[in-house]
Write a structure and sequence with these properties.
CATH superfamily of the largest domain: Cobalamin-binding domain
Bound molecules: cobalamin
CATH topology of the largest domain: Rossmann fold
CATH class of the largest domain: Alpha Beta
Strand order of the largest sheet: 2-1-3-4-5
Number of helices: 9
Order of helices and strands: HHHHEHEHEHEHEH
Helix content: 55-70%
Strand content: 5-15%
C-alpha cells in the first residue's frame, strides 16, 4: 500500500489528474511519508510529462496543467517543510532567479523552499531575469550567493552573461555563484565560471552552506 501510494501520485500527475494527485498526496502525508519523498516522485512525474511532450503525445497546454498540479501540491507540502526550519539567524543570503528568456520556475521555487527551510534568507527575482537585474540585486541586497536556474538549452548560455555582468561591475569576487536546472551539468558550470552546480534542491542546501563558509574564509 505504502509504495503504491507513491506510484499512484506519479501516475495521477502524469495523467494530469489534479484531484487524484491531491488525494494521493494527502494520503501519503497521513501515512507518514516525508515531504521530500513525495516531491521526488512528483519531480519524476514531471520528467515523464516532459518526455511525452517531446514525443508529441502531450502539448504545451498539458505542461501547463502538470505545473499547476505541482504548484497546488506544493501548497500542501510547503508548510510541512518550512515547519522544520525555525532558525533565528539566517545562515546566509541568496539572490536567485531563472535566467532571461526562461519562465520555468518549479525547480527554482523548490530550491528556494529548501534553502528557506534550512535557515537561508532568499531574495527571489522570479523568472526571465536579465543580467542587469541580477547585478542590481547584488548591489542592493549584498548576498553571499547568486543562484541561477535554466531549463532550456537555449537559455542556459544566459547564465554566462550574468557572470560576465557581475565581473564587469567588479562584483564577482563578493559572491559565490551556483547554477542548476535540468540541462545544466558540473562541466557546464565550470566552463562558464560558476562556483558550483546543484543537481537538486536538497543537494543545493549543503552546497550553499559550503559556499558561504568558503566566502567567509576568503576562498
Ligand atoms: C513544466 C514545464 C513547462 C511549464 C513551466 C511552468 C513553470 N511555472 O515552471 C511551461 C508550460 C510554462 C513550459 C514551457 C516551455 N517549455 Co517546458 N517543461 C516543463 C517540464 C515538463 C517540467 C519542468 C519541471 O518543472 N520539472 C520539475 C522540477 C522539480 O525539476 P527541475 O526544474 O529540473 O528542477 C530541479 C533541478 O533541476 C534543480 N534546479 C533547478 N533550478 C535550480 C537552480 C539552482 C541554483 C540549483 C542549485 C538547482 C536547481 O533542483 C530542482 C529541484 O530538485 C520540462 C521537462 C523536464 N524534463 O524538465 C519541460 C521542458 C524543460 N520544456 C521544454 C520546452 C521546449 C518548453 C517550451 C519551449 C515549449 C513551447 N514550445 O512553448 C516552453 C518555453 C517557455 C520559456 N520561454 O521558458 C523542454 C526543453 C528542451 C530543451 N532542451 O531546451 C523540456 C525539457 C520538455 C522536453 N522534454 O522537450 N514548460
Amino acid at each position: 500500500m505504502s509504495v503504491d501510494v507513491l506510484s499512484s501520485i506519479k501516475d495521477s500527475l502524469v495523467n494530469l489528474d489534479m484531484d487524484k494527485t491531491i488525494d494521493f498526496v494527502r494520503r501519503a502525508v497521513e501515512l507518514g511519508f516525508k515531504p521530500m519523498d513525495i516531491i521526488n516522485v512528483l519531480a519524476d512525474g514531471m520528467r515523464v510529462v516532459g518526455v511525452r511532450y517531446e514525443r508529441g503525445e502531450y502539448f504545451v497546454s498539458d505542461l501547463i496543467v502538470a505545473s499547476e498540479i505541482f504548484k497546488e501540491v506544493m501548497s500542501i507540502l510547503e508548510p510541512l517543510i518550512t515547519r522544520v526550519g525555525e532558525v533565528v539567524r539566517p545562515f546566509g543570503r541568496v539572490v536567485i532567479g531563472t535566467v532571461e528568456g526562461d519562465v520555468h520556475d518549479i525547480g527554482k521555487n523548490l530550491v528556494i523552499t529548501m534553502l528557506r527551510a534550512n535557515g537561508f534568507e532568499v531574495i527571489d527575482l522570479g523568472v526571465d531575469v536579465p543580467p542587469k537585474r541580477f547585478v542590481e540585486a547584488v548591489k542592493q541586497h549584498k548576498p553571499d550567493i547568486v543562484g541561477m536556474s535554466a531549463l532550456l538549452t537555449s537559455t542556459m548560455v544566459n547564465m554566462k552573461r550574468v557572470i560576465e555582468a557581475l565581473e564587469e561591475e567588479g562584483l564577482r569576487s563578493s559572491v559565490k555563484v551556483i547554477v542548476g536546472g535540468a540541462p545544466i551539468t558540473e562541466k557546464f558550470a565550470r566552463e562558464i565560471g560558476a562556483d558550483a552546480y546543484g543537481e537538486n534542491a536538497v543537494i543545493a542546501v549543503d552546497i550553499c552552506k559550503k559556499l558561504v563558509e568558503e566566502l567567509h574564509r576568503g576562498k
